[in-house]
Amino acid sequence: MSEVLLSATNLVKRFGGLAAVNDVSIDLWRNRIHAVIGPNGAGKSTLTHLLSGDLPPTTGSVSIGGKDVTGWAPERISHQGLGRSYQKTNIFLPFTVWDNVRLAAQSREAQSPWNPLGWFSDTRRVATKSVATHARCERAIELSGLKDRRRAVASTISHGEQRQLEIAMTLATEPQVLLLDEPLAGMGVAEAERMVALLLLIKREHAMLLVEHDMDAVFALADRLTVMVNGQVIASGTPAEIRADAGVQAAYLGEEH
Ligand SMILES: Nc1ncnc2c1ncn2[C@@H]1O[C@H](COP(=O)(O)OP(=O)(O)OP(=O)(O)O)[C@@H](O)[C@H]1O
Q1: Chain region(s) in the chain for CATH 3.40.50.300
Q2: Considering the entire predicted model, what is its pTM?
Q3: What is the pLDDT of residues 101-123, one digit of tens each?
Q4: Which residue, by CA, sits nearest to atom 26 of ligand 1?
Q5: Which GO terms describe its molecular function (predicted)?
Q6: Looking at residue 226, what DSSP letter applies?
Q7: Higher-confidence residue: 242 or 125?
Q8: 13-67 pLDDT per residue, tens
């Protein structure tokens, strides 16, 4: 059954005189992908930072699972059920796929701030203690399609597999809501197709916000779209509604979509 897992209301983020996000409201539903599109500088990344707690909003509110999380720190919001991937990779390249996922899973349990190098020396002891962590890692790796690559060192896997690994690391924290910032960036056609299939699989159990410039992927994936320009929402609706919106065509999409 579909339900709203994250609700953002009238979010505003000002940087000095610039309103990078200007009165944006968005609901994320379980089993639905909500894509946010718009030209460079539209405010898409800033919006995801507001939802994850990486930036506090100037005004407006965010709730997750019905709980008001406005102004909470990112770690606390993560514990409330939000997972996010970043445009800039968080992968530790000298470590294996499995170790990266395990570190991400353990970040969920740690009391101290995120310090992966410190934890790494301790991982063997923690892993044997924590059957639940192990199971979470197994599931995240399997779901993200990396089962056969678990022992590979992250620096040796392909770019597309590294993006799958980021998804696995996010899933290992068992989020209800996923914020994905350009998961297809830099991918070739075959890698992009694999990632689209993966995201369709993952969405069944999650609410997902997708920021992505690859419009073929966006229109293949999104159940709803929000179009931002200069910090403001100029349109929001189904893919068919967005395709037919003359204002969106003029401002962003052009003729091909
Ligand atoms: N920390 C900051 N301080 C000042 N201005 C900022 C800051 N972060 C973002 N901005 C500005 O806010 C606006 C929105 O930026 P944002 O990165 O959210 O856009 P975007 O839609 O994600 O762009 P892109 O598609 O290029 O990633 C831009 O004008 C940007 O320069």
Answers
A1: 1-81+176-256
A2: 0.87
A3: 999 988 776 544 455 555 565 55
A4: 40
A5: ATP binding; ATP hydrolysis activity
A6: E
A7: 242
A8: 999 999 999 999 999 999 999 999 999 999 999 999 999 999 999 999 999 999 9
How many angstroms separate the alpha carbon of residue 162 from the centre of ligand 1?
A: 25
Quick check: 223 and 216 in contact, CB under 8 A? no
What is the rounded CA–CA span in Å between residue 257 and residue 243? 6
Please give the average per-residue pLDDT across 214-222, as a whole number: 93
- The domain 1-81+176-256 is classified under which CATH number: 3.30.2350.10, 1.10.3080.10, 3.40.50.150, 3.40.50.300? 3.40.50.300
Q: Are 159 and 187 in contact (CB under 8 A)?
A: yes
Q: What is the DSSP letter of 184?
A: T
Cα–Cα distances in angstroms (integers) from residue 172 to residues 12, 120, 137, in the given order: 31, 16, 6
Query: Does ipTM top 0.95?
Result: yes
Query: 21 with 231: CB under 8 angstroms?
Result: yes
At residue 68, φ and ψ (nearest 5 deg) are -70, 115
256 CA → ligand 1 middle, Å: 26
For residues 43 and 21, is the Cβ–Cβ distance under 8 A?
yes
Ligand 1 pocket, residues with Cβ under 6 angstroms: 15, 18, 20, 38, 40-46
